[in-house]
Fold Chorismate mutase domain-containing protein.
Amino acid sequence: MAITTSQQAQAGLAQARQHINELDQQIAALLAERFETVDEIARLKKAAQVPVKNQAREAQVLDQVADAIGSDQLAPHARKIFVTIMAESRAYQNQKINATTSEEN
């Protein structure tokens, strides 16, 4: 009995979703590592008394991401994702800085 095109498509879809799940696990691990570094950056920014937001640095990161993606079609989507990542990183930095400030008082 031959597998129908629909069955082949379903099997292919399941395989592709499994690959996405694996990639998501890798991305989650990298995000956890990134936030460990963000924690250190928050500590250093507090010690250096510099603001959390650095627009020039964020623009540099977005340009690097767009270059790393290597696709004009995908670059805008990657930029949007990294805008969110950086916004959450700033929120986490502010949380860490404010928590250590209140602990010191």
In short: The chain has a mean pLDDT of 94. The chain is about 85% helix and 0% strand.
